[in-house]
Amino acid sequence: MNKRKWACLAAVACMSLNLFAQQTAEKAKQDLIQKTTFGGYVIGKAGATDQDGANSSSFDLRMARVYVNGQVLDLKYRLQMEVTGGGAGETNEKSARIVDAYGEWAKYKYFTVRFGQFKRAFTFENPMNPWDIGFGGYSQLVMKLAGMSDRVGEHSSGGRDLGVQVAGDLIPVGNDKHNFLHYQLALYNGQGINQKEQNNGKDLIGGVYVFPVKDLAVGVFGWNGSFTKNNVTVDRNRMAVGLKYESRWTVRAEYATSKGYKISDYDATTGDLKATACDKSDAWYMTVGAPLTKKCKVYAKWDVYRDRRDWQSMKSLYCLSANYYFHKNFKLQANYSHTRDKSTAKDGRYNNFDLQLYWRF
């Protein structure tokens, strides 16, 4: 090979190396750029009820949220704030508060680490966005036993707490290579959102579920911890099992059981346990969602909570809902529920109806 050919080959090699170096440098530069997105959503509500002693009709701003998501290299972060009831001071006044504030190292799908304030790793429904529930609110199981408005007396926390979590997806299977196994394990303060630690204990919450086929999950969850308020500490030992199928059709069913007293089970003056106290409760729900058209999906749900794990304390809701999507970011939801509440001496049988307008940006 003559010198001219060698020179040409050398020139081509140099150009290739230079191009490779430029592409590598550009990729590194892109990885270092902070990728940030902003968004939010608003849910408005008009409701009516025939329950004795309750306001027969009302208009409400159920929820307004704004959030920012971002990523730099393998580090992700999220900050979300909301305006809703149950904030600072626990009054009926709508107040602003932080609901999510966390960072996450997510280099590997099989092992991620999250630190900050985020959803508790308990039940299938708790981590779901209000947009995806299908009804005008979460089930009683999630409200009472997953930290939305927890039975122990914790302030409204949206199913969240402060802590650190490891999670991952493992074992790709099937022609679609969906992950067969998902796990989550987290340590939390146990006091709910925007609250400092009140005792030396930590809540350990975890979940493991499998996907036999794509979109179908079967899982088990556990919670061992405590909650402190007014110098009283109560245990929270809970378990849940369930299944979830989310596609055009929806099927969700979960059962949870809890052992541990409530703060209100103790006399505020003497600190003694009341004679009426009970440390056992449970809840379950079953939901089915069916698509009527590409824009409309209807849901039905049987939703039960027993504050004393007996039939005399049972509160049952029979719910129907229709969701109509004018646009992927704009929908109208009509909800009906019939309540049978054996735990109250007041009107325990009544009907609720509401219209909710969802808008996100």
Topology:
Blueprint: H1 3-32, E1 35-49, E2 57-72, E3 75-84, E4 95-108, E5 111-119, H2 130-133, H3 140-145, E6 160-173, E7 178-188, E8 203-213, E9 216-229, E10 232-246, E11 250-259, E12 280-291, E13 296-306, E14 314-327, E15 330-341, E16 349-360
Antiparallel strand pairs: 1-2, 1-16, 2-3, 3-4, 4-5, 5-6, 6-7, 7-8, 8-9, 9-10, 10-11, 11-12, 12-13, 13-14, 14-15, 15-16
Please describe what this structure looks like.
- The protein has 361 residues and is mostly beta strands.
- It has a single domain (33-360), classed as Porin (Beta Barrel), CATH 2.40.160.10.
- It is 11% helix and 55% strand.
- It is built from three helices and 16 strands.
- It has helices at 3-32, 130-133, 140-145, and strands spanning 35-49, 57-72, 75-84, 95-108, 111-119, 160-173, 178-188, 203-213, 216-229, 232-246, 250-259, 280-291, 296-306, 314-327, 330-341, 349-360.
- It has a 16-stranded antiparallel barrel.
- The longest helix is centred in the first third of the chain and has 30 residues, at 3-32.
- The radius of gyration is 25 Å and the shape is globular.
- Residues 86-90 have low confidence and may be disordered.
CATH level-1 class: Mainly Beta
Please, how many domains?
1
| CA-CA gap between termini | 65 Å
The low-confidence runs, each spanning 5 or more residues with pLDDT under 50, are 86-90
Tell me, briefly, the overall form: globular
Report the count of strand segments. 16
Average of per-residue pLDDT values = 90
CATH level-4 homologous superfamily: Porin
The number of helical elements comes to 3
Q: Radius of gyration from the CA trace?
A: 25 Å
Q: What fold name goes in the CATH topology slot?
A: Porin
Q: Structural class of the secondary structure composition?
A: mainly beta
Estimate the strand proportion: over 45%
State the share of residues found in helices, binned by percent. Answer: 10-25%
For the biggest sheet, the summary is: 16 strands, antiparallel, barrel
* Helix-strand string: HEEEEEHHEEEEEEEEEEE
